[in-house]
Design brief:
Radius of gyration: 13 Å
Strand order of the largest sheet: 1-2-4-3-5
Strand content: 15-25%
Shape: globular
């Protein structure tokens, strides 16, 4: 697990071919970014083999990512927090990428759907 940006931990494989999207994976409840990196079934390894950069984040309160205030831990609060974090991730890791593709598992899917409904300046 690594610190991706000051506010989030997670896992990444950043091999890239120009024009590939930056994939960002958001886990569900009771899981961490490790959900996307299971031995023999790793989404991160598959992305790396195809030279698609991928980052699996640890949502707030998971892994080494900070806990948000209780009133911000719902779907909309986490989506708002992660929208800002995704902007920082894009700025740091998005060079030569075509845009961002979000993948969500379980409650992570509800969070990424909320982000996608109001992406601001994110290139989703």
């Amino acid at each position: 697990m690594t610190q991706l940006i000051p506010a989030l931990s997670g896992r990444s494989r950043l091999a890239r071919r120009p024009g590939a999207p930056l994939v960002i994976a958001v886990h569900g409840g009771t899981y961490t970014s490790a959900y996307f990196d299971l031995s023999g079934r790793s989404l991160l390894d598959a992305a790396e083999a195809n030279q698609v950069p991928i980052i699996a984040i640890d949502r707030p309160g998971y892994g080494d990512s900070p806990m948000l205030a209780a009133e911000q831990m719902d779907i909309t609060g986490q989506a708002a927090f992660l929208t800002g974090a995704l902007a920082a991730i894009w700025q740091e890791y998005g060079t030569d990428c075509a845009g961002i593709v979000l993948i969500g598992h379980s409650i992570g899917a509800a969070i990424v759907a909320t982000i996608a409904s109001a992406p601001g300046n994110l290139p989703l």
